[in-house]
Task: structure prediction
Amino acid sequence: MKLLVLATLLGLSSAQFDPHMKDGRTSLVHLFEWRWADIAEECERYLAPNGYGGVQISPPSEHIVLTNPWQPWWQRYQPISYNLCSRSGNENELRDMITRCNNVGVNIYVDAVINHMCGAGGGEGKHSSCGSYFNANTKDFPSVPYSAWDFNDGKCHTGSGEIENYNDIYQVRDCRLVSLLDLALEKDYVRGKVAEYMNTLIDMGVAGFRVDACKHMWPGDLSAVFRRLNNLNTKWFSSGSRPFIVQEVIDLGGEPITASEYTGLGRVTEFKYGAKLGTVIRKWSGEKLSYLVNWGEGWGMMASGKALVFVDNHDNQRGHGAGGASIVTFWDSRLYKIAVGLMLAHPYGVTRVMSSFRWDRNIVNGQDENDWMGPPSYGDGTTKPVPINPDSTCADGWVCEHRWRQIRNMVIFRNVVNGEPLSNWWDNGSNQVAFGRGSREIVVTKSSKTKPGTYCDVISGDKQGSSCTGKQVQVGGDGYAYFNISNSEEDPFIAIHADSKL
Ligand code: QV4
Ligand code: CA
Result:
């Protein structure tokens, strides 16, 4: 009897680690600042046909609208209420997107900002994305409603009311992060409002959440909120499915708050992954690709089953948050393809692909003066749609890394090898490595072992019918393939898999 109960509990508690992706899909893409209408289209015309399992969307909640600087991307991290109209669209558009993406098997994960409301300097009666009134001076947000009682200021003991020292865990949780009005999540009322917001989205059909700023919330408070969440909508998910949870905790070591305090509640963003991979790909500090032989836990990262991994995110691609200079982004496209290719080939973690917009980067003394710039938009601040060029790239400043052939084909690769362990590691002790997944497929920069035959390299081209638009790779009867990749090639790696056999 006792054993049975234990088994049930285990079944329930592990579910929030599962992204509930359909048809053996394995990766999500962050369509940063995309409009709901464009995401709906993208699910149908591109993500579903190319094996993407889900989309992380920008925060859908009502947010402050700022004019100085002009409509920065980060205004969406300053909620005014949980009404569902934002720079990406209104509630009807949100609902339409969730329905259409779910109908083609692409999940939606919501970026939930629940640690705080807008900045203390947000003023009174200023603009908000649904037009709701608020007063940051008196901490009055009538559209939730929250009043001064629902904020933490009484609990914060720093002179400024701000987090001043990340070595003090009480400050980090109970004081203001960059002046953002900090919610008192130990209050039943506040927990209830947050859970109500998240449950509205769950009932609309989302598959889970990226929860913002978790380092700044007590694990016990988060646990209380997560326990109140509904199961996923049975129109699209099997009954009893718990929402997927990714907690944003930046743990690069050196602080008293660690990711491990949160891994019991759901997955956690593994920030060491992109920071260290960037160092390796850039060959900084004497790092070499061959050192990746024990990549993952062997490099001091959390257990694979707890991790959400990414090469860069919307913060560290522009110097916000943490990760440092080693982070590789689309601005370094050649290195970026290698980094994302390696991430998608390697079995560690649930993988998130970044999809960005271009901005007028202007680095002065190591700082980007334009790190605030919002998505491509019209003069009034309305976000522009994402036009697709005839060659399937995106126009108007949308980078669409997820549509780059090398990245898209490695998303498919990851699906093909899903569940297979890393195998047949080879390296030359320096910057040439090759490895397989199970007995089947390989990613290489030099030579490796797989089943005999002729394969299409999915990095330099695509398999189309029975022909290949890129390099062909011969695997001999001994299971070995020999080929040359020049260091000066735009894409100095190849990947072949069962479905790329000619
Ligand atoms: C500024 C000063 C304050 C001052 C205040 C006075 O910095 O010291 O008290 O003015 O009014 C913006 C501005 C910031 C400003 C603040 C409040 O950049 O200068 O404060 O607004 O007006 C994003 C941006 C932030 C932005 C925030 C809110 O990155 O720059 O702040 O949105 O609009 C830590 C955390 C981690 C966090 C990371 C960035 O542990 O959780 O920093 N990452 C997440 C999101 C991130 C978001 C937030 C958290 C906050 O990924 O995008 O911050 O929701 O590492
Ligand atoms: Ca807090």
Q: What stands out?
A: The two ends are 54 Å apart (CA to CA). Confidence is low (pLDDT under 50) at residues 1-13. The first helix runs from residue 2 to 14.
